[in-house]
Structure formats: C-alpha cells, structure tokens
Amino acid sequence: MINLKKLLKEKIFYIKKLNERGYDVSKLDIVFENSNKRSNLMQELQSLENERNKISKKIGIYKKEGKDISKIFIKVSEIKNKVNLLKLEEAKINKLINSFLLTIPNLPNENTPIGKTEEENILISEYANLGRGKVTNVIPHYDIAKKLDIVDFERAVKLSGTRFWAYKGQGAKLVRALENFMLNEHESRGYIEWNTPILVKSEIMQGTGQLPKFADDLFKIEGEKNLWLIPTSEVTLTNLHQNEILDLSKPISYTAYSTCFRAESGSGGKDMKGLIRSHQFNKVELVKIVSKKDYKNELNKTLQDAKNILNKLELPYQEKRLCSGDIGFASEETIDLEVWLPSENKYRETSSISGFGQFQGRRSKTSYRDENDKTQPVYTINGSALAIDRIIAAILENYQNEDNTITIPKVLVPFMDSNLID
Questions:
Q1: pLDDT of residue 265
Q2: How far is CA 234 from CA 121, 239, 354, 382, in A?
Q3: What is the Cα gyration radius of the chain?
Q4: Which helix (H) or strand (E) holds 290?
Q5: Strand 245-246 to strand 367-369: parallel, antiparallel, or no bridges (unpaired)?
Q6: Is 362 within 8 Å of 3 (Cβ atoms)?
Q7: Sign of the CA dihedral running 109, 115, 121, 122
Q8: Pairwise CA distance, residues 31 & 37, whole Å
Q9: What is the DSSP string of 81-136?
Q10: Are 90 and 42 in contact (CB under 8 A)?
C-alpha cells in the first residue's frame, strides 16, 4: 500500500509515477476529496472538544457559587452528541480511504523504464550458449511427453477439466527431482525452507496485494467465508510475520515449494497446449524481508539465486527488465528470466524477481526498527526460482535426442537415478 501522508504531500510526484504505469489518476480524486473532508471534520471535532472542556470547567465554579448548572449539562450533552456523530462520519471516511488505498498500485522506481506494454521491456542479457546451446527443430514438449508417457493431458482433463495435466512415472519423478534440487540449492545459499498452507485468509491475500484487485484470478473455497487457494507461496512466506515488529539486523530469507492455483480468467484461449498455463502448477519461491539498507543488495542477490538454477540446469535463457506498464500491481521493479522453448522459437518467462519497497510491509503491517530506533514497514522481495512446469517443458525440448529420449541435466541425475527419460 502506498503511503497516504506522502500521497497527500507530494501529489504531483505520485500522479506522475502512477500515470507512468497506466493508472487512471483521476480516481485519486476520491482520496483527495475525502482527505479534505476528514481534515475539516477533525478541525470541527477539535473545536467542539475545546468548547466542551471550557464549559465543563464552569461546572465546578457554578457549583461553588450555588448557580444553576442544568443548562450547562444540556449544552455539554449536545456537544457530546455532535462529537459522536462526527466521529462516526470520520470512521466512514477513514474506511473509504483505506479501502481505496488498497486498489492503488505501487509506484515504479528509478530502475523501471517507462513504457506501456511488454514490447517496451528491456533486454539485459541473453545466455544462449548454455548446455547444448539454443537448439531448434524439436518435437514440442507436449508431444514428446505423450510419446514418452510421462504426462497425461487427457486423463487430467477427465479429472478436472481444461488447463490441467497429470505427471506420470519418470515425469512425476522429474517434478520431485527439480523440487529437491532447487530447494537444496537455495538452502545452501542461506534460505530457510518452509512448507506452508495452501489455503489462506482474505487478509493474508490482501497483505501481498492479491486482494482486492485480483479476486477474479483466484480460487475461493465455496461455503467458506474467508479461505482462498494461494496463487504462489509468496503469499504465505511474506505474511508469516504479519502484525509483527522484526529484528532485521540480518535479512530474512525464506524458500518454499508449493502447488499454486490461478483462475487465469483473463487468458482466454491463450497457451492451451502443453505445460505453459494451467489452473494448478508447481513452483519454488524465494522471499526476503529486509531493511532499507539491505534492500538493493538483497534484490540483486535474489536475482543471482534464481539465475544460479538456470545456469546449473544449463538451459538457454534471457534476462529482461520490465517497463512501468508491465510490472505487477505490488511491484516497483521487476526482472524476468525467460527460458528458451525451441518448438516455439521464443523465450518463456520462468521467473519474475521483484522488489516491492515498503508496499507489502505497509499492507501486512509488518515492521522493523531502523538505525534510529524508529518503527517503519519492512522492505520485501520475491521471485520464482523456478516455475517447475515451464522448466520441465524446457528440459523436454532443449535436452531432446534424435531417438526421442531426453537426456537428464547433470545436476538432476542424483535425484533421478538415471541420465535418460526413454
């Protein structure tokens, strides 16, 4: 959540930055108008409180002098009723402002290039010569997966409908191998592993920015007033310390594997084939909760940790910085890592490394004491490391052999007990 005091104090700056990311800044009038109303109400309340205090002081004097104090009591009662009504009005305005603040996206920071669409994202680096290099002319991953009988799309559809798949045999084992490999790597680099619930309360979704804006992209549990399926373990890991004041003398680094769920309501018929876009998918997540002084350094380290996985899997990939019109709602800057899919002759996103500044810390009411012993919202970072299903698609294509077998990346062999899927 953005800082209301700064928004009101630095209107021109906030309007400029929100306009850069395509936000309809005319909506901000709701905040500005209601903040003015609240300010006038507070002045009126203060004036009434002062008047009541002055009158109340007269009661003792009048009593000593034997004067009638009934009229004073009536006046005090009238003021009290006015105060109560104004406080109710103030509470309504506060609720309206706070609810609206939850719908305003984060501001893009100085590292985020200005742009409207993904076509204006900036290529940072391409790592095309890893493993076998940037191969072409292969059987698409969904066809080779069927041929090898390691993914069953038809039976998954029978079980759950479209946008689902089921791993089988060596395919299921490959999922487990990637999960173990990634978690072991992250643990060796200082992350604490968690296994968190996949059902969370609304306020937890709100803490990381999924609610209220993305309710249509989430799965809510029917019959439950307050339970949602997580779209990523970023939600649980970031909110573990909700409503806490933390010691951030050292950064907090967490990782988790989870099954994730997204409605994909806006994707229509996009990416219906293969392991690219599903209602249920597998992912290993990285989350950091840090102080201001560690924020930039830890954001870069998180990016290196995600790249480390791709480098060790020896999969060709590229690194892109997202423009202001393409970053996520809660993000102030994002770098995408995109893995090469030769059957499509294009790169596909497999990780987004994002810095959120204090946006999520403010929403989740997670704080720390800075070097001046002042309490302020924490800084948060997160990234996929990595999206497992897309990595499996990339392995099936980039490690494909002429005899339709798949060579297992060297780092996964200890987890697979085989160097081939055949």
A1: 64
A2: 24, 8, 11, 7
A3: 27
A4: strand 280-290
A5: parallel
A6: yes
A7: negative
A8: 10
A9: HHHHHHHHHHHHHHHHHHHHHTTSPPPP-TTSPP-SSGGG-EEEEEETTSTT-S--
A10: yes
Q: What angle do CA 260, 261, 263 make, to 5 degrees?
A: 155
Position 305 scores a pLDDT of 98
CB distance 263 to 283 below 8 Å? no
End-to-end CA distance of the chain: 50
Instruction: Render the burial of 78-114: b for 16+ CB within 10 Å, e for the rest.
Output: ebeeebeeeeeebeebeeebeeebeebbbbbeeebbe
Neighbours of 179 (CB within 10 A): 17
Q: Answer whether 309's CB lies under 8 Å from 386's CB.
A: yes
Edge-first strand order for the sheet with 245-246 is 245-246, 367-369, 375-377
Tell me the sheet residues that pair with 245: 367
The neighbouring-strand residues paired with 246 are 368
101: closest CA among 32, 46, 165?
32
Record the tokens describing residue 292, joined without a space: 């201001």
- E strands, 292-374, in order: 317-321, 333-341, 346-357, 367-369
Please name the residues in contact with 29: beta carbons below 8 A apart, sequence gap of 6 or more. Answer: none
Which residue do the tokens 């099954």 mark? 259
Phi, psi of 381 (to 5 degrees): -140, 145
Asked if the peptide bond before residue 105 counts as cis, ω within 30 degrees of 0, the response is no
| Strand 317-321 relative to strand 122-127, pairing | antiparallel
CB 50: neighbour CB atoms within 10 A? 10
Could you count the other beta carbons within 10 Å of the beta carbon of residue 250? 10
User: Number of C-alpha atoms within 13 angstroms, CB side, residue 1?
Assistant: 22
Whole-number Å distance between alpha carbons of 106 and 208:
11
CB-based contacts of 203: which residues, under 8 Å, 6+ apart?
242
Within the chain, which residues score under 70 in pLDDT? 63-66, 265-269
Residue 362 in tokens: 């403010």
What pLDDT, on a 0 to 100 scale, did the predictor assign at position 67? 73
